[in-house]
Design brief:
By secondary structure, the chain is α/β, with parallel strands linked by helices. The chain has 2 domains: about 180 residues, Medium-chain alcohol dehydrogenases, catalytic domain (Quinone Oxidoreductase, Chain A, domain 1, Alpha-Beta Complex), CATH 3.90.180; about 140 residues, Rossmann fold. It has 10 helices and 18 strands. Helix 3 crosses helix 4. The radius of gyration is 20 Å and the shape is globular.
């Protein structure tokens, strides 16, 4: 079968690999992926990996590179193990890709995403979404309603990242929100904040193409170019008595973006780190103290969120499909996928791959 595999930095290949064979374990589910999104984590692997893909056998799964990529995907169930009862052949699912022990400190508390042994389908498991078939565990298979398209099912995973940030920020009906960065997660954070009831959403994004995309996706936002406009003046003009926003969602992973969020949030507001910082960030700790700011840092998402997001999408309140800017065949995954997403012009947010 055809599969997209990571070998090393700048070395992703479309190869013919053997499909899953042998008997399924009692908790296994055999699936045929529909479509898979390219994630920022995949891009980081392509640029500078291996980072999270395993050079040595993974501590929990035993997986090693080369790695079949793809952890944002939907699929059809083709076969199930003897102990699987919540899905059956023919069912459409969204894959919750995190894999984890359920008997360690975090697993026993339902905090599966925090386990030090956590693995991920498409990054540190033998199979991934960018292939003709894959094997996952029963808890990875999340049924989706008929109202959802295959693409919407694939988008639940990145939507979960964005929604977790919105949840941790406590966004509610009437909230004022700043989203710093209009990349794919920033765009989904905008949609998630709106679904949560935010009354004002300001988006700070220096790239003109991304500002145009987010304005098209969410015409209700106030889009700001922080290079040519004074973001703090905009925030003061649009918030009650100029106090600042209730919640600032940092979706870039850069020091300047984090500090802009601290500047923009009101006293006793919340700054939520959604974008991953790959280097240390310096902050004005005295400013954070004087403003009595709460910092919420996020990692992945609670895996239990899948049905809730599926319901939101099905209701029309969370139109995650709007973030998709291109659909490509796996044969073109490097040139039209990874390289297109790395183009500094920023013409794309989410590119979906069909195998």
């Amino acid at each position: 079968m055809r599969a997209v595999r990571f070998h090393a930095a700048r070395d992703i290949r479309v190869e013919d690999v053997a499909p899953p064979s042998g008997d399924l374990a009692p908790d296994d589910v055999l699936i045929e992926p529909f479509c898979t999104g390219i994630c920022g984590t995949d891009l980081h692997e392509y640029i500078a990996g291996p980072i999270v893909t395993p050079v040595l056998p993974h501590v929990y799964t035993g997986a090693t590179n080369p790695q079949i990529l793809g952890h944002e995907f939907s699929a059809r169930v083709t076969k199930v193990g003897a102990a699987v009862s919540h899905v059956q052949p023919g069912d459409r699912i969204s894959v919750q890709p995190l894999m984890f022990p359920r008997d360690d400190y975090y697993g026993k508390r339902g905090l599966f995403h925090l386990s030090p042994k956590m693995a991920c389908v498409g990054l540190s498991w033998a199979w991934g979404g960018m292939a003709g078939q894959a094997v996952i565990k029963d808890y990875n298979a999340q049924p989706i309603p008929d109202a959802l398209t295959d693409e919407q099912g694939a988008m639940i995973e990145p939507a979960a990242v964005a929604m977790y940030g919105v949840d941790r920020g406590g966004v509610q009906a009437g909230s004022t929100v700043l989203v710093s960065g209009a990349g794919p997660i920033g765009a989904l954070a905008v949609l998630a904040a709106k679904a949560a009831g935010a009354a004002l959403i300001i988006v700070s994004e220096p790239n003109p193409n991304r500002r145009q995309i987010i304005t098209n996706i969410a015409p209700y936002v106030v889009a700001v170019d922080p290079k040519t406009q004074n973001l703090m003046e905009v925030v003061r003009d649009l918030t009650e008595e100029g106090v600042g926003v209730d919640v600032a969602l940092e979706c870039v992973g850069l020091e300047a973006s984090l500090n802009a969020c601290a500047d923009a949030v009101r006293r006793q507001g919340k700054v939520v780190q959604v974008g991953l910082h790959i280097r240390r960030a310096s902050i004005d700790a005295m400013q954070w103290a004087l403003k009595d700011i709460t910092l919420e840092a996020t990692w992945c998402y609670p895996v239990q969120v899948w049905p809730r997001i599926a319901r939101l999408i099905a209701s029309g309140a969370f139109p995650v499909e709007k973030v998709i800017t291109a659909r490509i065949d796996a044969a073109d995954v490097v040139a039209k996928g990874f390289e297109a997403l790395l183009d500094p012009a920023g013409h794309h947010l989410k590119i979906v791959v069909r195998t």
